[in-house]
Give the backbone structure.
Amino acid sequence: MLLSELQYGALLSYASHGYTDQIKYSRDIMLKLKQDGFVQSSSSNILISKWIAQTIQRNRTSPAFSSLASLFQPDAVLVPTPKSSLMDEGTLWVPYRLAMALVNCGLGKEVAQILKRIKPVPKAALSTPENRPLPQDHYDSMQVQKPLSEPSDILLIDDVITRGATLLGAASRLADAFPNAHIRAFAAMRTITNESEFERLYYPTVGEITLRPSGDTLRRP
């Protein structure tokens, strides 16, 4: 059964349309995130997954980060969101890298690879809006492999959130297996479809993903 809503947080934002210098730069960072590429930090290059974790850890006590930082509880189990395809051994899995970087910075208790994709779904970024997988499609295509102990706090980790269908489907599957767990989600970056609503790349945000009567999702902001 699908959850009706899910709290999520994001550190960065990018605009999928538009041609200003800031918008083009935000898309460049999104592409680096998808490959866990290197970005400039101080005087050296660093993997973007590590930069994201270190940025949250360093700023978690500042007022602008208070809501986002509240997602990262000391006893939280971080669960990477599966890719849309079935993964072979050695496949780059950015949500897993993000989860590991966050735990290494003290932003969670452990990483648990307990969500598995048992059948592929179309990649949302390559699908037309009407053909994008719905939360139910993601829910039906995932399986939970239970850990030894029941987690009390679960934080789903993803690289990019658009509508939130993947996260809502994944959270719903986890809620079936762990009905007493507090489940929330974090994505490194959120998509801004309307270029006029894009403000800046670095934009810590907490919002909600809501299930629509049509079966699709509404993400705010």
